[in-house]
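Recall that a protein's primary structure is simply its ordered list of amino acids. Everything else, from secondary elements to tertiary packing, is in principle encoded there. The following example makes that idea concrete.
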Amino acid sequence: MLSVAQLLPQSLIILDVDYFRCVNNNYGHLVGDRVLQILAMRLQNHLRSEDTIFRYGGEEFVIILSNTDAVIVRKIADRLRVLIGSQLISIESSLSINITISLGTATLKPTDDAQSQFTITSRSILAAS
């Protein structure tokens, strides 16, 4: 990892769409898939170009933030939580859905490996849910 090699802080956000099963159950999986696509685009549009976002499982996403310390990653996570919760996702002209997300954060220490950082972050999202 470049950040570790340069001794720059690297942080991770794991986020989960709250009650996503209800979206699929109420509107169908095609609508659920579109919600996730729009969510991913919104997240990417509010991150830096060097940040990496990817889908991890059903309705979970992971964001890797280089050169980002623990204080900043918590601010970014909170900003994303408010942003996503405050904007409806328009699927079509007659259907808009409000979703919220829960997020967990962790910052890699020089002694951490990727697995330990992921484990720490996973625990923090469980605490946030």
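Residues 22 and 28 are 9 Å apart (CA to CA). The longest strand covers residues 10-17.
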